[in-house]
Amino acid sequence: MDTEFKEGTIPFAIPSVRKPCFTYYKIAGDLDCGKPPIICLHGGPGGTHRLMVDFAELWPRYGHPVILYDMIGCGQSTNLDDEKGADESFWTVSLFVDELNNLVDHFKLNVNLGFHIIGASFGSVLGADFATTQPQGLRRLVLGCPAASGPSIVRGLRSRIDELPAEHQQVINDAVMRQRFGSKAFKTAYRAFARYAVCRAEPFPAVFERSIQNVDSPSTGVVLAMRGPCVFGTKLGSLREWDVTDRLNQITAKTLLWHGEYDHATDDCVRPLFERIPRVRWYTFPGSGHVVTYESRELREACLTLTGDFLSQVEADVDAQVE
After folding, report:
1. Among 49, 53, 67, 139, which is least packed, fewest CB within 10 Å?
2. Which residue ranges make up each domain of the chain?
3. Would you say 103 and 23 are in contact if contact means Cβ atoms under 8 Å apart?
4. Other CB atoms within 10 A of residue 314 CB
5. Cα diameter, the chain
6. What is the mean pLDDT of the chain?
7. The domain 6-150+241-322: what is its CATH number?
8. pLDDT computed for residue 225 by the predictor
9. Cα–Cα distance between 56 and 66 in angstroms, integer?
10. Pairing between strand 321-322 and 280-285?
């Protein structure tokens, strides 16, 4: 279904940045329709709103307006490579929490109906951290393919590498040791990893194919600063310091966790969130990797339905349960 969008920019003042900054956004639906809007947080770090565009269908299907946006340094929002490059002290999760608060304030979402959040991959890092601050107006929280710390993200990636055929493991391990990722052999091994744990569709959808073209080199300062030079996070940047585990019990919003059966956000990544968030559900999509909505029409529909139904049952209680 084709969805119409309204787009614009929001000023975002960052004290340590000289030039004016802005956040680019797109809205599906009417913010005054009488239902809580949904804010979608994309993956990365360094991705764009396009990674979450499937969730715009929650507007025509469920009547919730959907806000997509590019995080600062990403997509059509202000690029700061010229001023901040790969400065790890600047590119932190707290910067993106500040930006999200700025977006909520801009649209006055913290009053009246409140709002929901869907975060996937790095978006779930941001969503979880944001939710621990108990922001006014946050009603429900969906965390797709989540983890509770930077080191746990790396352990999840490592565990899936260890499940690959031996020849791919060796190529990846050698590349990681040498910190050289440009060889044809590494790109072949990475594609094998991606097909196993990231996107199990055959062939890869065009949007995913484009996203892995630069696997050998970070595309922006934010990627290098937070993830590091390696797609597997073996020399993790500022995310190595990120750990929300001990704050998860401060999340008051009803929460849905989902991931894929073969996801590199493994059960061990998800479990700390399930054990510590007070009101939470956990669902695993059978046969899926990390990018659930890209993998098949059936998985896409299942993910949209699970997420949309959860966000629409605003008054229902959620007990801790695994499905």
Report:
1. 139
2. 6-150+241-322, 153-239
3. yes
4. 14
5. 57
6. 94
7. 3.40.50.1820
8. 95
9. 6
10. parallel
pLDDT of residue 118: 99
Q: 54, 70, 129, 263: which is the annotated catalytic residue?
A: 263
Measured CA distances, 174 to 152, 181, 232 (Å): 22, 10, 13
- C-alpha–C-alpha distance, residues 100 and 202, integer Å: 35
- On whether the CB atoms of residues 283 and 306 are closer than 8 A, the answer is yes
Any residues with CB less than 8 A from the CB of 160 and at least 6 apart, and which?
193, 196, 197, 262, 264, 266
Nearest to 157 by CA among 187, 198, 116, 192: 198
To 10 degrees, what angle do helices 166-178 and 184-193 make? Answer: 120
| Reported pTM | 0.95
Q: Is 263 a catalytic residue?
A: yes
Cα angle, residue 109 at apex, residues 144 and 129 outer, rounded to 5°: 40
Q: Across residues 110-139, what is the average pLDDT? A: 97
Amino acid (1-letter code) at residue 36: P
Catalytic residue among 77, 121, 152, 288: 121
